[in-house]
Amino acid sequence: MKRLLFPPSLRDVSGGRWIRISLRTWHLASMAFLVGGVAQGVPMDSLQNALWGLTLSGVAYVAMELYTSFVFLLQLKGLAVVAKVVLMGAAAASPDHALTYLVVAIIIGGISSHMPGKYRYYSVFHGRILKE
After folding, report:
1. End-to-end CA distance of the chain
2. Which tens digits make up the pLDDT trace of 26-61?
3. How far apart are CA 107 and CA 111, in angstroms?
4. What is the pTM (predicted TM-score) of this model?
C-alpha cells in the first residue's frame, strides 16, 4: 500500500503538463467569476456554475497530483491546497465574510504556485524537501 501511495519514482500522465495548465486556467477563470460575483453581491444561487467549475477543476488537479504521488499532501504546495479548501468551506458557512476568505485563498494560491521549489516541495513533517 505504501508503494502505491508513495511510489519510488513519480508517476506521470501523458500530456500531463497541458492538462495541468488547462485545469489551472479553468480554475482561475471559475475563481474570478465567483469572487467577482460575491464582490458585486450576486446571490450564491446565481454563482453555481462558478462554484462547480472551481470544484471540478480543483478536484481534477489534485487527483493528478495524488496520482503522481501522495507526497503532494506532505509538501507545502499540498498544505496550501488544504488551506484553500478550508477557506472555501468558511466562505460557504459565513457568506458575510465570504469575500475576505476568497481573497485570502487567492493570495495563498498565488504565493504557493509561484514560490521557489525549495519551498513548494518542502515538507514541514520531514523538515526537508521531498520531491519523490
Report:
1. 16
2. 999 999 999 999 999 999 899 999 999 999 999 999
3. 6
4. 0.87
